[in-house]
Amino acid sequence: MTEPVTTLKGVGPKQAARLEKLGIHTLTDLLFHLPLRYQDRTRVLPVAGLRPGDEAVVEGEIALAEVQSRGRRMLILRLADGTGALNLRFFHFSAAQQHNLVRGVRLRCFGEVRGGRQGLEMVHPEYRVIQDDSAPVEDCLTPVYPTTEGLHQISLRRLTDEALARLEHLPDWLPPGVLDAAGLPDLESALRTVHRPPPDVSVAALLAGRHPAQRRLAFEELVAHHLSLYRLRTRTTARPAPVIRVDGNLLGRLRRSLPFALTGAQDRVIRELERDMARPSPMLRLVQGDVGSGKTLVAVAACLHAVEAGHQAAVMAPTEILAEQHHHNFRALLGPLDIPVAWFSGRQGVRARREALAALADGTARVAVGTHALFQDEVSFEDLALVIVDEQHRFGVHQRMALREKGARDGRLPHQLIMTATPIPRTLAMTAYADLDYSVIDELPPGRTPVKTVAVSDARRVEVVERIHHAIGQGRQAYWVCTLIEESEALQAQAAEDTHALLREALTGVRVGLVHGRMKPREKQAVMAAFKAGELQLLVATTVIEVGVDVPNASLMIIENAERLGLAQLHQLRGRVGRGTAESACVLLYHPPLSDTAQRRLEALRATTDGFEIARIDLELRGPGEVLGTRQTGMMQFRIAEIVRDQDLLDTVKAAATRLMRDHPDHVEPLIRRWLSGAEEYGRVG
Ligand code: ADP
Ligand code: MG
To answer: Are the C-beta atoms of residues 532 and 515 closer than 8 Å to each other?
Structure first.
């Protein structure tokens, strides 16, 4: 089955080029080019039951035929089947069609139903003139393939027919026994069923993607995906890394200086990091912790170990504000231990930058904190042994790689710690981060009171303003977050400025500050510092404060246009309050009417503050691409698998992948190639 597609009838250079665009070179590729979905042409449906968006076969008599010449010329047929009627529109038609398609002629059509101005209609349906009622319908579901310009479904169906006819000896790379245990069919019959569902197939199962044949292929695809990530991982871990084994004196001193003890979860995760870094191969660990779980201290602990062992560490954050916050925290925590921290930002002055560069290169600075400015070419370290990336899914893979390479010396790689506050459901993490070890800080510091959340229509703004007054009267502080659907920083800033002006007017005597992405870093810093110090009582902000900002005395948060934001983002924003011991509240201001999903989102936030529960709901509402961030959607595009739908397979997938690597290492490469040819570049690189 490795013959090129050009061995198929009718595939010349042109057709081959089109197929190539779809990644199809061989007959095997063609067989693994799976249907996206199916059309049900097995039943004739009554017109009365149709709804816009349906794809359906209908049959009836032409009740009216006319060529409309007003506006765009078209042939319109009114088709009546006794239950109702719908219009068929043809913009391109021949004289013969016009001659044949007249009143009284019976047609059977297939097409997508749309709601037109004169009721339901189909535009350019496929049709057939029918002589008598007993003309057979299709007895199988019709596959619809992903395709490209100039390549018709009919051609793809014909080509797959041929490939299926020649199907023999397709090696099954999965370990024997796994499939039987999972009750799944063999590869060949699965392929035949998925491409050409037999008449007796369960239509409902197939349309839902739950047919055993589909699950068989989804399973194999997930195994291939898992193996490819795992291979990237082993390529990284095969390289040497500095062994970091220390007494922990620095961490001990830090602990004694803190006004609180670390939580059990923080301690546990720190121990996991210690174990990783004591090995002679690079740590590759993802640490997840809900907002407020205390990830910063875990990161600081890892840095302290690297420094104590005589190396340097780098901490990278995705936004200026978050990086600044880290810089502030790291300086506050490391300063008393006499550990110099260098700061890198895209917006810092030439001189500050030159000094930071020199301090890192000659080793005066032991820790670097910054934005993506850290992985520019001119930044070089004396001895980088640990790279910490916060909120990693906002970075592209290549950026993470670039920083890692700065620690590469004599083939040696630095340890890598990735931290994310976006809780990723276990199922998704198992698939998307199969190359990373995984720790969870699953405990919040004691004494926090859960945030009470309410959703309020923006018609009741006045009450909300009153509420701010009240909170501030009690010595508390509040955030007002302005959000816009537009990505434009300028528009966001404008909205925040307007709101700032309005609130200042409404709240006389209240010290109101403003922070947005268009302000100079120094201005932003000054405002944040004033808010932190309690000099400002209300902070009007754009979503720049989404991550990292930490002011325990702030206990009220208003989020404007909450209906426009995703769940994860709302959860992050809300995490800015509830950091102290005061009772905290979050008001989700929305503009009615709410769509169904918006309602579900706001309801989910009201119901729970558990980030993992919220992520699970988010995954259901939006799918994995969104949860993980758009930058990495490439890696979550499967041909047939769907993480949410197929999550019950994941445990078996992992076990099967492990068995393959152990017992059949020679199957790994061909299996990956079968499913990920070309696409693997999207995969995350350890
Ligand atoms: P996040 O996980 O959201 O990054 P941070 O590291 O910013 O959380 O910590 C949130 C707040 O909790 C900070 O004010 C920090 O000082 C505090 N904190 C962290 N760990 C503890 C702890 N074990 N006990 C009490 N407070 C803690
Ligand atoms: Mg943080």
So the answer is: no
